[in-house]
Amino acid sequence: MKPDDRELSASIHDFEAALSAKHFELKLPALDVILAAIDGSNQSAMVLGLAAQIARRASTRLHVAYIHEGAANAESDAFLSQQVARLVAEGIEAVALAREPDSSPPYARIIAAADALDADLVIVSAPFLEDFAALGSDSIGVTLDKLMTQARPLLVVREPRDDPAESLKPVLLPLSVHVQENPLAAAWALRLIGDGGTIRLVAVVEDDVIEAAAELIGEHGAADLDLDHLARLDRPEVAGLIAEMHRQAQKRSLGCHVSVRRGDLVAQVIELAEEGQRLIVTGRDTDPGSSSYRNVQALIRRARDPVLVV
């Protein structure tokens, strides 16, 4: 069996039928308030560019906070005012969040602001006020680690781009049988994708699924399965979700491609992202000890493009 990617040869409806798919109706999530937290790094422009693009298309109010160590100062206040004034001049309903006298760590201030605003989406850079090179090999930093445990969707910005809007057109949506948030991730992918964009769904079949197959049909048979057969070992909910995404994409004139891959989820997603994907959307468990949580941490560290965590 080859681990390389292969597009499913059957139509999406055949794929759905083969898996006895469960019917899904995806409802787009509310997006009335966005909080963009900048830290003064070279990623701040990308954070604001993505936030502006999303706010413009969704007619959403954008709140901008400049989170940094130490007390507020005239320089940081002026920088924040300049950025918000520029957004307003571009027709964005943007508001600057004043820095309150507070010695709390950055993550606590971001969470407090998001709670006070009842923000539907939080956008931050990665790492936030830290340097990955100075952190452990598996760490994404204290700020992002704390924000990851919150239920609110988090858009993590990695490398700056010349045109932030282009980062919202190709969307990569990995689907794993272990992630309960797959439908929510799919709904957010549809919510944020730009006009004329393309969603690529990749169903990643990991080793434990193959082990389960071995229990059903014997180890020898499981080892010889091709990717189409592996797809049929997945949960019916995944097939139903893929079918619904296909229908939604057709209604909105979006591209929608489906792939099945075998192996480590993070490695497969990064390989696909390096082929030119721009926005990675993934669900996650809030338990730091879960494999889902660790996978998202690894995606944030290794991806060059923005990662939306729901």
Layout of helices and strands:
Layout: E1 6-7, H1 12-18, E2 33-38, H2 44-58, E3 61-66, H3 74-89, E4 94-97, H4 106-117, E5 121-125, H5 142-148, E6 154-157, E7 170-175, H6 182-192, E8 198-205, H7 207-217, H8 219-223, H9 227-231, H10 236-251, E9 255-262, H11 265-273, E10 279-282, H12 291-302, E11 307-309
Parallel strand pairs: 2-3, 2-5, 3-4, 5-6, 7-8, 7-10, 8-9, 10-11
Antiparallel strand pairs: 1-9, 6-11
Helix pairs in contact: 1-10, 4-5, 6-10, 11-12
How far apart are the termini?
A: 33 Å
Helical fraction equals 40-55%
Structural class: alpha/beta
Q: How many helices in DSSP terms?
A: 12
Radius of gyration: 20 Å
The count of β-strands is: 11
- What topology, given as strand order, has the largest sheet? 1-9-8-7-10-11-6-5-2-3-4
What are the secondary-structure elements, in order, as H or E?
Answer: EHEHEHEHEHEEHEHHHHEHEHE
Strand content range: 15-25%
Stretches where pLDDT falls below 50 for ≥5 residues?
Answer: 1-20, 219-223
- Sheet bearing the most strands, described? 11 strands, mixed
Mean pLDDT over all positions? 80
Q: So what's the overall shape?
A: globular
Any overview of this molecule?
The protein is α/β, with parallel strands linked by helices and 310 residues long. Strand 2, helix 2 and strand 3 (61-66) form a beta-alpha-beta unit. The longest helix has 16 residues, at 74-89. The protein has twelve helices and eleven strands. Helix 1 (12-18) packs antiparallel against helix 10 and helix 4 runs parallel beside helix 5 (142-148). The protein has helices at 12-18, 44-58, 74-89, 106-117, 142-148, 182-192, 207-217, 219-223, 227-231, 236-251, 265-273, 291-302, and strands at residues 6-7, 33-38, 61-66, 94-97, 121-125, 154-157, 170-175, 198-205, 255-262, 279-282, 307-309. Residues 1-20 and 219-223 have low confidence and may be disordered. The protein has an eleven-stranded mixed sheet, with helices on both faces.
